[in-house]
Structures are given as C-alpha cells and as structure tokens.
Amino acid sequence: MNTLTVSPSPHVHSGDSVKKNMYGVIIALLPALAASVYYFGLGALIVTMAAVISCVFFEWAIQKYLLKTNPTVLDGSAALTGLLLAFNMPTNLPIWIIIIGSLVAIGIGKMSFGGLGNNIFNPALVGRVFLLISFPVQMTLWPKPSENMTNYLDATTGATPLSVMKEGLANGESVSSLMAKIPSLSELFFGNLGGSAGEVAAVALLIGLVYMLIRKIITWHIPVSIIATVAVFSGILNLASPEQFAGPLFHILTGGLMLGAIFMATDYVSSPMANKGMIIFGIGIGVITVVIRVFGAYPEGVSFAILIMNGFVPLIDKYVKPKRFGEVVKTAGKK
Amino acid sequence: MLKTFSLGGVHPAENKFSAGKKIETLPVPEQVSVPIAQHIGAPSEPVVKKGDEVKVGQLIAKSTGFVSTNIHSPVSGKVFKVDDILDASGYKRKAIIIKVEGDEWDENINRNADLVTDITLSKEEIVKKVGEAGIVGLGGATFPAHVKLSVPPGKTCDVLILNAVECEPYLTSDHQLMMEKGEEIMVGTQILMKALDVTKAIIGIENNKKDAIDHMSNLAQKYDGITIEALKVQYPQGGEKQLIDACIQRQIPSGKLPIEVGAVVQNVGTTYAVYEAVQKNKPLFERIVTVTGKSVSKPSNFLTRVGTPVSALINAAGGLPEDTGKVIGGGPMMGKALSSIEVPVTKGSSGILIMPDKIAKRGTMEPCIRCSKCVSVCPMGLSPYLLMTVSDKAIWDRAEEEKIMDCIECGSCSYTCPASRPLLDYIRLGKGKVGNIMRSRNK
C-alpha cells in the first residue's frame, strides 16, 4: 500500500517559478545587450560582466557569511539586478566603481531590507543613483556610439541628446536648432546615440517588452502609463511653446525612459499590486521624469522618478485596491 | 468571442482522459457505508437500526431541518451497524453500514428507461419531491437542491442557469451525462423551470465540450425557453457567481446569494437527478463518478451507488497505479485529498483523481516577490497576497475589511503563485477565524 499524501487543494500548480520569471526578464534584456555590444563594443561587455558577477558574488557572500542562510543566487534575481545596473552605466566606467555600485545595489538596496521580495526601492537604481551622486564625472562621460568598438576606459566621449538639449536651452538656443545637433529620430529609435549601456536602443527594449507581455511576465499597465504620460505632458509643453520645450518623441526615445518604463519600473517587488495602482505609479513616474528633465537641474530624471514613486508604493497599495467582484451591482431584470 | 466571467481566472491543463468514455454501471459492492453527513447543512438522522432489512431506494436517514436532506439506501440487504467510519473529510463520522443481499428495488420506483416528458406535478409538489428524494448539488458543493428551488419571499427569479461547465480539469462525469442523458436533462430543466416559475433557462457549457454543445443545442430546439451558452474555457467558471456573470452578466454583491440577481443555478447532474425523482420516483442514491489520472490504465465514468468504497472504483478502472502519491475526491483544483481509498463514494463525489507521486507534493515555498499574479487571477478581485499576510499575522479586522469572506476557495492564487506560496491555506485559516468573529458579533 502506497502512502498517500494529504494536503489541501489546489493539488496542481501552474509550474511557474520565481526563477522562470527572473530568467524571463534576463532573456527579454538580451536584445538590448546585443544592441549595446553593437554600439559600444568591448566596453559594454566588460561593464555588463563586471556588474553581473559582482552582484551575484555580493548576494552569495552576504547570504552565506553575514546572514548565514542558504544562498539563493541561482534564482536569477541578483544576476538581473547586475544586468540592469550595468545597463544604467556608461560603458567606460572603471570596474572598481562598478563593484562599489553592485555592493550598494545588493547590500543596501536589497539585502538590508531582508532580501528578495522585501526591498522598497529598485536595487539597481539604488546602486545607480549612489554612483551618480558619488562619481558625477565618471557617471556622465558617455562613450560615443559606433566609434569605440575596442576601447574601454579610453573611449572617446560626447554629450547625450538630453544634455545637449538641457544646456542648449539654458543658453537660450531654440529647440529646432538643437534638434539639428543631435541624432535623427530614427537613429534615436535604433540606438545610435550616446547614453548608458542598455538604454540606447528603443527598438531592442520594445522587443523585450513584447516578449515579456507574451510570456505574461509583466502586464502593460506600468510601461504604457509611463510612456503615455511622458508623451502627453511633454506634448502639452511642446504645443504651448515649441521652441522652448522639446516634443514627445524626443523625450520618449532619449535617455533611460524606455529602459526605465519597461524594465526598471516594472520590477515586481518595488511596484504596486493592483492594475489601477500600477497606472497611478506609472503616471507619477512620467510626470516626475518630465519635471526633472525640463525644470530640474539634471538632464535626466527617470531613475529619480522611479525611486520616488517606489517610496509611494506601500501607500498606493493601501488605498488602491483591485476591482472586486460584485462591486458594480447589476440588478435583476436588467439585460 | 465566447463569453466568460469578468475577473481573473486561470486555465490549467485540461487532461480530460475519460472524455467520451461510455458510462459503465459499476457492480453493486458487498457492503456499503452511507455517511449521514453528505451534504451542506444538518446531518440526517438514521431511521434504521442494526438488523433492519432495506430495499434499494428506501429511506434510511431523514432530514433534520430545512437545510438538510433525506438519505436513501443505495442497496438492498441488512443494516450491519450504524457506526463511525473514516470518510472523505478525513474524520471519523457516523455512517449506516449495509451488507448487500441481492438487488431488490423499492416497488414505487419506475425502472423503465423510457423518457417521460409530461410534467404532471405542480410547482409545490416538485419542490417537495426534490426535497424528499434527497437531491443535493451534484457538482460537488452538495447544497440541498430544494432549498435553492424555494425562492424566499420578496425575491424573484427570472432565469435558471444550468451548470454544465465542468471547469475542473480531468473530470468528465457531467460531459458524459449530457451525451447519454441529454433528453432527460432537458425534461429535468423544464421541471426546474416549472418549480421556479421561470420561462428562461440557460445551459452554460465550456467550449472544450463541443460535442455536448452541439448535442444539447439540437435537443434544446424541441424545448421552449432553453438556450445553450458556449463559454470560453476558464477556471473557475463553474463557481456559481462566475457562471452567472458569464451567462447573464450580472454580478452577485458581496455576501449575497444568486437569487439577489434573479438567478438560480443547478448542476446538470442535479437536473438529471431531479428528472429521475420527479418522473421516475427514484430518489438519489447513485451518481456518475469519473475515475481518472495520468497513470490510470482505464480512465472511466462509472454509474456508482453511494456508499461504494473508492477502492472498488479504482479497481474497476485498472487498479491503483504503482506510482500513486495522492488520491483526490473531486477535481485537482478544489477536490479533497483522501487519506484512505476505503472511504465511501457520496452524493458529492464527482470524480476520483489519482495523482502520481512526483506531482503529489508541493513545491518549496519562496519569498513573495510581489509579482501581483495572485491579484490578477483572483476571480473575486481580492488581494490573496495580503490576505495571506494578515491571516499569518492574525490581523482579523483587516482580513474582514479586505473581504476575506468573499473568497470562493477556487485555488487560482495558489495554483499561479511562482513562489509556490500556500496562499489559499492561509486564507482558509483566516476565513474560519473571521467567520467565527462575525457570527459571535451577530449573536
């Protein structure tokens, strides 16, 4: 006679796992990685490898020696944080700075809150913003695309479209004259612009988005609401004063907006649970991003916008609930 | 676009191995154990004692209240004892044990298989008959059928909905019943329509049973007011609230019954039992039980007497497979894992599912990664992750605020959770506690 297992229902499982989701996001990031290597060559590979290896190492070391628990680095979440951190850094960043960034991302951003599932802020962005504030020079020297295939630390650098726009407008130049100084919109779409390793190629990031939507890793709510909000907000400013404010396509295709909307803001742990909450979260990120870009001191504001909205997630979850069954009462006799 | 319910839902692998398998009549066993608590509500009270001779269909335990029901002997023979036995719940509970002798039926039962279409009984007589015949919801919920047919004063019912969804993976008993007893179900539907005084009935069938949809649609042409609604395959569409939403787009408010939106739902198996009771004078003592599983050599649909040990069904389906790790009474999503295969089949046994050892155990629980998949699959629009946390931390007022009592225990959340978290286990715990608190407050 066999021994029967007795457990409460349900007795079947979808087969989904934390690992599958994490590696799913990593797969979705591969087109962007390929684009990054295509435009930035060796530097992109070195920066990505360094960030991934150090994030995985720090998580393993912290779990094993500091927390004395069984390391769970194989679940892919640390590798994902490393990959996202790398995608948010210039491809000529020295390895020692990357290691510091990884330690902050994993150690402070993730493990200090209790590890996977408990962090309030997106760990990769915690690392990135820490580096931006601590090493402002190194973090804003952007290698020129397609010119630095074998260069790493000695890459020739140039300004990003966002900083060209910011400085130009501050010097009283018009949007139309500045648009002539930056790559064309189609170049922006295919990623031929200066910027962080993984953020340049909008097309590659969109392929990743489609993949994640098909595999149901994420839903459309966060990316669409962010991009739509940026489009509407910058569109209104642009309509009001076309020579003073750049248009929506410029804002969507430059900087870290696509990477942020598709991969950073959608981080499970630090985003809201209900669809309505996700949309509020996305609108908040969109508004803050444009405010920082247009009126703030920094040319780019996606990272700050996401981190600020991360802080609001517990509040959003408390007050924004999913639509309950039977809330909208349809009475008998009504067809 | 096929209709379905509006919120959440999942689509587990269907695995309907026993689909299309003709209903076989299982031989009457040597001994049956008939539990006196096979339905929701008060247990019935035995009216026979040790040594009594009984016939098939004879009353052996009577209803003890409005929400309770009669139980009839599924066999003929001698009452061996009335004693506590292990039942599907895993507890020892009272049952009437009968040693079988021959197969002598109560002479009032019409055993002729001819279809009887004329409905001679009045509305009140039908409800009374259904009550006397011991009919309960055969989809698995086992709620006494006559209670649902008694529309409370002040409420009106304008539509009868038949549940032929069979959204649980593996199970095929309702499907096969429709294929073989479609006419009888149509007449049963007319009987229920008369009892409820409605002119409209909708039979909801999921689109993975295309043959049944065609068959029933053809039959329905001959009967006034009956329509077939093909529904998109989506679990838990067989949930009463979900089915009403899917068929007529009305949502039952929190804590209310279907009658609130003018609907009454009955399972197709129940409808067939109603036909037999009203037209053939046959009480409920046998039912169709699917016996299935990945390693089962002969997945089958058996017409089985209540009280038959589960082991007899398993043997008839080719025996217990070597790799058996779990035997489930019902489907994989909401069924109960049995602690022994000697427990009896009851009125609510829709299936016996045998699971191989390697999928019998749950995955290792990981931390919640807040992926929000439990929220998006919940058909009631709840936040399972939050209900688990508040139940774990025993914050009962918050659990009540978050509508823990709305949970229909479909298990979609636990099924989906990538971190294999036992969400429903904790929600059940919370429901128990919150339910007690709410009841004591009302006292």
Number of helices of chain B: 13
| Alpha-beta classification of chain A | mainly alpha
Number of strands of chain A: 2
Query: Could you estimate the helical fraction of the residues of chain B in percent?
Result: 25-40%
Cα shape of chain B: globular
Chain oligomer state: heterodimer
Largest interface (CB < 8 Å): A-B, 48 and 81 residues
Give the percentage of residues in beta strands of chain B: 15-25%
Give a short account of the largest sheet of chain B.
6 strands, mixed
- The general outline of chain A is globular
Q: How many separate structural domains of chain A?
A: 2
By DSSP (H or I, 4+ residues per run), the number of helices of chain A equals: 14
Q: Quickly give the structural class of chain B.
A: alpha/beta
Mean pLDDT of chain B: 94
Contiguous runs where pLDDT drops below 50 for at least 5 residues of chain B: none
Q: At CATH's second level, what is the architecture of the domain at 123-280 in chain B?
A: 3-Layer(aba) Sandwich
Summed up:
With about 325 residues, chain A is mostly helical. Chain A has helices at about 20-40, 40-65, 75-85, 95-110, 125-135, 160-170, 175-180, 185-190, 200-215, 220-240, 250-255, 255-265, 275-295, 300-320, and strands spanning about 140-145, 155-160. Chain A folds into two domains: about 20-140, no CATH class; about 160-315, no CATH class.
